[in-house]
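Narrative progress, year one. The postdoctoral researcher (J.K.) led the effort to move from monomer predictions toward full complexes, under supervision of the PI. The following entry was the first complex the group processed end to end, covering 344 residues in total.
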Amino acid sequence: MITLNINKKTYHVGAEPDTPLLWVLRDHVGLVGTKYGCGVAQCGACVVHLNGEAVRSCVTKVSRAEGKKVVTIEGLSATNTHPLQKAWLELDVSQCGYCQAGQIMSAAVLLKEKAKPTDKDIDDAMAGNICRCGTYLRIREAIHLAAELQGKGETK
Amino acid sequence: MKRAKENPVGKNNEYDADRYAGVLKLVKEKSGWNGPEQKKFSRGVAAYFCHNSYAAHVVDMTTKEGQPYVERVFSAIDCGIVINPDAATNMVQGAVVDGIGNSLYGGLTHKNGAVQENNFHTYRIIRMHEAPKKVEVHFVKNDIDPTGLGEPPFPPVFGAVANALYKASGKRFYQQPFSSPQPEMPAV
Ligand code: FES
Ligand code: FES
């Protein structure tokens, strides 16, 4: 039995310690906002926060998450009003949407570290997230917009 | 134009030569073709017809870290009435971004009937820093019933990128992906 803190809730799951965190999130806990894209740390669809840092849950053993705070897209904001979520809605970023949970989770760490990210910051922070639908232009714009909203104090 | 109308390319092509020329005219105007911008970039243009829609792009290429980089794109689309302009624009932008990635590095190879590139470590998909900063999309306004938009803006990206590469290097690129070694052209 492994005890996890996910989105401020405690879960006890019967999983082997080397089970990828992504499997535990989706199949044991039922939080399916986090997506499986490649399983080999290439696409970023599975990004979640571990003690505030972006990790790829497909290559993160669940044992590594024990005693840490896991945040998934479902826990980013209790009311779905994180500046990034507002900006994503405002600019209609998504197409198929498959990559977007991972994109937003990567961008959330960027915004925490850099209140006003430059295009170069965005290039660097988002290079690990693939979007097959090609929504990169809008993702970039939405990150800039979210930074603005965040600056105005429009936080969750 | 007269010739295009009398002798359409392909036996079963039912394209309307005026609408085909229409997207080229629109993209010419919007991109300022032959204007001062022409000097700043290696520019390429291509147009396409499928799913009863017409698409044309002008791609503006520079280099970034020694690699060809499409910095900006102008698109003109005729797909009849556009119901949701913002979503339609997003779709065209996506087709352009993905088209650039596929044209430059989206190669698939086979061995014993199996695809060799079995995940994203070997099958390269375009990423944020490789995508253009701007894709300006213009729709022809008319009252024709809506037609396809998922596919039509995608293929002409390849032609436009190939033409921009020709402008930049003086070499013709016929083999996709264009980052792969290009075969020698047979003597004409
Ligand atoms: S599923 Fe984890 S990086 Fe692709
Ligand atoms: S929106 Fe479809 S993969 Fe990003």
